[in-house]
Input
Amino acid sequence: MAIDSSVLHAKLKEFFGFDSFKGDQERIIKHLTAGNNAFVLMPTGGGKSLCYQLPALVMEGTAIVISPLIALMKNQVDAIRGFVSGNDGIAHFLNSSLSKAQIAEVRNDLLKGVTKLLYVAPESLTKADNIAILREVKISFYAIDEAHCISEWGHDFRPEYRRIRTIIDEIGNAPIIALTATATPKVQSDIIKNLGMTDATVFKSSFNRPNLYYEIRDKSDPKRDIIKFIKQNPGKSGIIYCLSRKKVEEMAELLNINGIKALPYHAGLDAKTRAANQDCFLMEEVDVIVATIAFGMGIDKPDVRFVIHYDIPKSIEGYYQETGRAGRDGKEGQCITFYSYKDIQKLEKFMQGKPIAEQEIGKQLLMETVAYAESNSCRRKLLLSYFGEEYDVPNCGACDNCLHPKKQFDGKEEMSLVIELVDSLPEHFKIDHLANILAGEVNALIKSYHHDKLELFGSGKDHTVKFWCAVIHQGIILGLLYKDIESYGLISTTDKGEEFFRNPFTIMLTEDRVFVEGEDDDEDPASNIGNQRGSGGGGDEQLLPLLKDLRKSIARKKGLQPWVIFSDQALEDMSIMYPITLEELKNCQGVGEGKARKFGEEFIRLIAKYVEENEIMRPDDFIVKSTTNRSANKIYIIQSIDRKLSLEDIAQAKGLDMDSLMSEIEAIVCSGTKLNLDYVIQQDIDEDVVDEIYDYFRNEATSDSLEAAMEDLGSDYEEMEIRLVRLKFLCEVAN
Output
């Protein structure tokens, strides 16, 4: 029999200090206290925990709360003890962090009937000793928090969660309440079926968080953008999510160097450090916590003002859960995600080698994330529809797509042309190769396949390669084309695509939604080798053409390609920052000491004159200080190359793989330091090969991009050969 409303309201005020319940809380609690099963879908910040905490305090027996968030259990237990003063035994947690003496204390309080809430990790629940203890205790109900972990289609699947029903049967039956902040209809069905609670009443709150602002940003210079954003929002609490533990550590260090109080948080830290870092964030001793996407952080802080994803999550559910940690108090919450194709490629690589079924699920979840990131529709509408909820408002007014709509066009003819090309080729090719054919761009790979002789070669020459890449990518998202991860991203046409080709219909595509490849994880902030930022970076539109003309003039005099002087990105930064000294010039992206001294004088004279004539108010310099953890490596590498040590010996001495060593050397060269690698090149590469690659960079290359060079030069050359000769060229010509 359900507990009376007046009693529940009195206890709500007594324990939690609230005058009224939120949303469905009262209905859920009455349902549970009457001995019924419940499945609760409630967004982060909706008050899920109260739905099991209050019934546990008023019902007879002990509630077992199963949660994967070991690091958060102590905080939740402390919170309950705070509500009920003078009785620390009222709430406990049982997990691997406890000593034998602490476990004995928990057991004693359980058997005495003092404990009303016991938080248990699913791994701890499976241990025979713990099952034996719980069989002696009267269980009021089982609360399964983060219930999406049960489903393989959920964003944070935990195999041990699928054993919960079996263990409940072993301990003893009692009502079950399963709770999650994210679950698609498919995940909901999976959870209910696995827990054997088909009789459960489903309580579903709206997933709309009207106070949250959603934005996807191009990942061209995320570190700089993040630092600038945080400095524009001083004193506000925020979370930054990264894909790897290494990136978490680097980002936290970078923020601190730039005057932002930040700490890392990931599963690789010991429990004590993790707990201390979390407490510093909760106690506002630091402004920012940097965490891995893979590790469920579960920080219970109502005034998180921004959530930034440095790397895109693996699923929409993961994205929704993580962004949901912003603005839990109903006030401002900014959710900014940096996105590039490279993120997707990394996540695709992680899938390789996994069981086929797991790969298929992962691919589908990932494609839904890509579709969300690249869509031009209202982000709020997309998110809510993903969770089976309609949102009929034409403009939410709180996402980038609604506030800044992208230019669209009917891509029926363009998509038909892409499909015609794919179907006409006897073999499958990557996106870039197909785009080059349509745009009529000749390179070594095109020539080797004689694709410059195709009837469709240049059939889309009115548009750029980037335009055709965007069309093909959107074709993948729409399900008209298929990208095979196992076959290195080769493109084929789907049945849906073939049907579209036979009977074309209007499809609205976006012309300017082209994302860059993005930063490499190991990239030095000072280095932008092979990372070209898109044009149109918001600089001075009158100054930029003058800088480009000057670059062209210098390049002509010196017989060099313009990009060798300064990249487009460097010129864009100059048009934003107006550097008038060589020292200031070095703060522009891709401008090292060597380049500044070799080519900089004429540029700073032009800028100084322009600033004076146009009475420009120069902005306060915004400089991102880079981390110093590479300085020791840098000195060792330079000295070792001077001594003509083999690259293998240098890498081994510093515990680096060859790719990481090459990235370090490239960063050193890009910063303006000359290195003489001839002893390596002469030993490992044929002289004719060196001449051919060197000639390519001098006469054909339009940038220093490694990817473009590998595409243009084709499969006759090894990546390492191209990288080494590119370094030789940059040292001899650019620095």
